[in-house]
Amino acid sequence: MMVSFEGVGLRYGTEAEVLRDLDFTLDKRGFYVLTGPSGAGKTSLLKLLYLAQRPTRGRITMFDQEVTDLPREALPPLRRRIGIVYQDFRLIEHLSAFDNVALPLRIAGMSDADLEQPVREMLAWVGLSDRARAKPPTLSGGEQQRVAIARAVIARPELLIADEPTGNVDAEMAQRLVGLFSGLNQLGTTVVLATHDLSLVKQVPGAQLVRLEGGKLSDPTGALRHPPQRREEAGA
Amino acid sequence: MSVLRMSAAERRLLPGGRLSGATPWLIAIMTFVMMLVAAAGLTVSHGAATLEDASASRYTLQLPGGAGKEEALAASIRGLPQVRSVEAVPREAVVDSLERWLGAASEGADLPIPALAEVTLTPGADAAVVEKAARTKFPTAQLSSSRSTLAPLVRSLRALGWVSLGLVLLIGLAAGAAVVLATRAALAANRSTIAVMHGVGATDAQVAALFQRRMALDALAGALVGAAAAGGLLLLLFGAGQVSERWLGGGAPIGPGALFVLALLPFAATLIAMTVARGAVIATLRRTP
Ligand SMILES: Nc1ncnc2c1ncn2[C@@H]1O[C@H](COP(=O)(O)OP(=O)(O)OP(=O)(O)O)[C@@H](O)[C@H]1O
Ligand SMILES: [Mg+2]
Predict the structure, then answer these.
(1) Over chain A, what is the mean pLDDT?
(2) CB contact at 8 A, B216 and B270
(3) Three-state SS for A90?
């Protein structure tokens, strides 16, 4: 089990709860597709998952430890095991595409010599080899999104969280990127992907659809109650 | 990511050449003022010490109404082991100085003119023994220390020294506050970069190191400029003062220890700026989730 939520609720300030009574577990091998109308709280749920937000009630367990009120100093090592694709990319504007992608490796202490090759390979894979020195403001929306994805997966995270990762790319690139996520999932990464594009679910055999509406989760396919079988079996 | 060994890539995380254009200048001005005040304080303290040293073994032997007996008075204690030197003050000199105090009127008046001798005792000598020796021949002779006449002056010089130390600390405090403000502004300007760094697992220490390094460079540049300006001005002032210093027999206006303290000041300022910046960053980051 990768993640478990028990009676989790979240409210911003004094507003009504955006998320309430969330009870679910995510399996280590799972590939979850989170949908729901705009404003349903998908991004908020993902923020809880990537430890940028603490719940206002309930308990969250990740990586076999309770993270609900872990002290601040304990969070960075956990965050290094999580890859994030933000809905708004959040690239560092004054850094080149290369430096943006290399950031997680640098923060983890890898030397420039060691990270050169993996970063080049990653950029080639998302089709941005010739844009390695470009700064984000000079990249198209789709190119920025690919840099953001490359940054999220470069450090081989155990948990990959992507918020609308294919919103700005054409269908062919979307398929390629989902293929990348699926490949990582096969190598052992848990994937949680928020999207409005339900066709993505069909592209990944064994993907579990989860729907967020009115602050509550429903799982039409029963994915959360019955963790997935091995992907090969599920896909067969 | 440590502050001292930071790669070019890590340095690129903060854009621009410096934290904020005004910071180095602010620190330059504060260092300049701080060094001048410190130099003044050290000079005054040094002066007080010199004065005290010089007056410590100086005494005046006085015989009221003993005009004309100056030489005999001096001879009464000359040769004692406690006495390093003794010199009779010529009668004319005494009259002269009396005139200066009392005006020409003293000439006609039948003032009792004392006999005086200036005495330097050996260090640690007991003045009472010397006075007793003088009294065997002149029972009304008095030996008085110059120290007691100079004491109020020495005390106020000492106080001035402490006042300047207080001023230096106050300026340092103001500089620290300025560094905190500059650091906070820099944090706000780089909020999105910090969020991304945290997202990929950067520790607060890693984030702080970036700002700390930048602040150290800004502070060092400012402190060196301020120190150079202060140093130049002090050289000018003390260079001119040197002549009068020699005349007073005081030697250098400040000791080598004090010079060392002054030279250390800009580096201390840099170190403090760096530490304060780090503290400000960590404190601000703690308030984010
Ligand atoms: N930082 C915040 N402070 C206050 N309210 C917030 C904050 N972030 C989100 N909200 C509110 O919480 C609700 C859920 O927002 P959220 O971004 O999680 O929705 P979403 O499902 O990701 O929407 P979309 O599909 O448009 O991205 C919205 O009503 C939003 O206005
Ligand atoms: Mg969203």
Answers:
(1) 89
(2) yes
(3) coil
Last residue of one domain, picked from the residues A156, A176, A208: A156
The structure's pTM equals 0.76
Distances (CA, A) of B160 to B44, B46, B47, B150, B167: 7, 11, 11, 16, 10
The answer to whether residues A147 and A162 belong to one domain is no
Question: pLDDT tens digits for A100-131?
Answer: 999 999 999 999 999 999 999 999 989 999 99
A95 lies in the same domain as A143: yes
**Contact assessment for residue B105 and residue B152, using Cβ atoms and an 8 Å cutoff:** no
Q: Is B7 on the interface with A (CB under 8 A)?
A: yes
Residues A126 and A191 grouped into a single domain: no
Neighbours of A96 (CB within 10 A): 18
B213: left (phi over 0), alpha (psi -120 to 50) or beta: alpha
Q: How many CB atoms lie within 10 A of CB B17?
A: 9
Give the C-alpha separation, B40 to B37, whole Å: 5
Give which of A116, A48, A119 is closest to A78, Cα–Cα. Answer: A48
Burial of B246 by CB count in 10 Å (0-12 exposed, 13-18 middle, 19+ buried)? exposed
Give the pLDDT of residue B237. Answer: 81
Q: Which ligand sits nearest to residue A163's alpha carbon?
A: 2
Alpha carbons A181 and A54: distance in angstroms, whole number: 26
The verdict on A103 touching B (C-beta cutoff 8 Å) is yes
State the pLDDT at residue B108. Answer: 56
- Computed on alpha carbons and rounded to an integer, the radius of gyration of chain B in Å comes to 31
Residues of A in contact with B10 (CB under 8 A): 106
Amino acid at A3: V
Q: Which residue of A78, A84, A107 is in closest CB contact with B197?
A: A107
Number of neighbouring beta carbons within 10 Å of residue B124? 8
Q: Which of A55, A84, A81 is nearest to A70 (CA)?
A: A55
Q: What is the largest CA-CA distance in chain B?
A: 98
Query: Which CATH number goes with the domain that contains A222?
Result: 3.40.50.300
Residue B205 CB: number of other CB atoms within 10 A? 17
